[in-house]
Amino acid sequence: MRITERTIQIPRKTNKQNILVSLGEDLRTSLSPKEQIIRFAITESSSDFYNCEVGLSLNENAYSQSSIPSLFDCHVRKYKNETHFNAVLMVPTGIGADIGGDAGDATPVARLLASQCDRLILHPNVVNASDINESVENCLYVEGSVLTRLLLGSIGLQPVRANKLLLVVQQHPDSYFTDAAINSVGAARSTLGLDCEVLIIDYFPEMRASYSPSGVAVGEIDDLSPLLRVLTEYKGRVDAIGLTSLITLQNLQPADYFLSTLVNPWGGVEALLTHAISTYLDIPTAHSPMMENQEIMNQELGVVDPRKAAEAISLTFLHCILKGLYRSPKIITDELMFGRTGVLSASDISCLVIPDGCLGIPTLAALLQGITVVAVRENRNLMKNDLKMLPWLPGQFYQVDNYWEAAGLLAALKAGVSPDSVRRPFPPTSIQNLRTNSHE
User: Fold this and answer.
1) DSSP per residue over 393-429, as a string?
2) Which partner from 310, 402, 426, 428 sits 20 to 30 angstroms from 134, CA to CA?
3) The pTM is what?
4) Strand partners, 331
5) Of the residues 288, 303, 328, which one is the last residue of a structural domain?
């Protein structure tokens, strides 16, 4: 099974009510029967077209298309649970976001927004900062495809006290780095109280990081099937899976990223890997890259951009995922469990917060689910989409200037206060006249 990414342009059909179904139908005509979509984003849209970045798994034999659900099938929620205020925070990986595009630099945003929620559900890109993970107790750390499926209504999340972890370590040509990964686990076990075992493997599919024509970080992964077979043997024995392996940077050196404004190159191919594993195995998954050699480790970078500093001082980049997976919620696929005490589903989501212009499955799922969406203008990125063009319900979509304003908006929504009522000028009362013929 090979994982790759492709750019596909499809026409925009304004007469289609279910945008997800329309997108899914049009994309399938561009794919072979053996290709399955595991990641999807619209990098640019107009009144005529969508430019789509599509992550694909090419299934030759081991895993059939029917083994994973469609990303374009939305189970529209039948009710909205108003007893708690739960929000989702997304900063898509590899899009060069000003906030959250580097090493966990959206963590302060997560801590701020979490203060206005009962639960804040986020994905690793928001808080992963190499050897640092400063998310707070009411945050739920889930892999990006899991978050997407939650908004689609196809899975639920069950918070846990702690998970038993498996860390899969690629046998590094230099044992120094293999030993460092094991020591990272030892450190997490002795400080977090983490229950984790290590599996060192001599085969790991080659992962190549690159950039798409739009500048988004993407990549390719060679045959994933042997690794999936190994991980399948651990399903039921462990609750979450961490992975660490080498990533080949095509036409790029690590220092090129640290000393420039380039998009973080590793995240795109890592997202392809974890999307595939989480989707096929229904288990929380996260990945950290390994350094290639000690020469790179010893490079003197000087003082770097603070948003990249966590990576500049790290050796293994592992503790962030170990801490995140430690309490990553269990994935619930049985819809009969949705709504039960302790299980969160799409019905329990009050709000989605995204950088402005980000258009993918989560945004479209929120649109169909009637979930409020807050787009933050200040978090500039490579996406070129006017979200106002989507067919939102009245009061469903808000554009705000920054995350301070987003936090205030969440506070108003949680308190049941109309956002318009705390701004000036005060809008006039909406009046409609309905005339009927009383003699008929």
Assistant:
1) PTTSEEEESSHHHHHHHHHHHHHT--GGGGSSSPPPP
2) 402
3) 0.95
4) 157
5) 328
310 and 264, same domain (yes or no): yes
- We report the CATH number of the domain holding residue 405 as 3.40.50
> Same domain for 212 and 300?
yes
Question: Which two tokens mark 52?
Answer: 């789509």
Nearest residue to 162 via CA among 136, 187, 196, 134:
196
Task: Confirm whether 239 is domain-assigned.
Answer: yes
Distance CA 103, CA 271 (A): 15
Number of domains in the chain: 3
Helix locations, 115-174, DSSP H: 124-127, 144-152
Q: Are 240 and 209 in contact (CB under 8 A)?
A: no
Contact 230, 243 (CB under 8 A): no
- Predicted confidence (pLDDT) per residue in 214-233, tens digit: 999 999 999 999 999 999 99
Token pair belonging to 289: 């890259």
Residue 112, H or E segment: helix 107-114
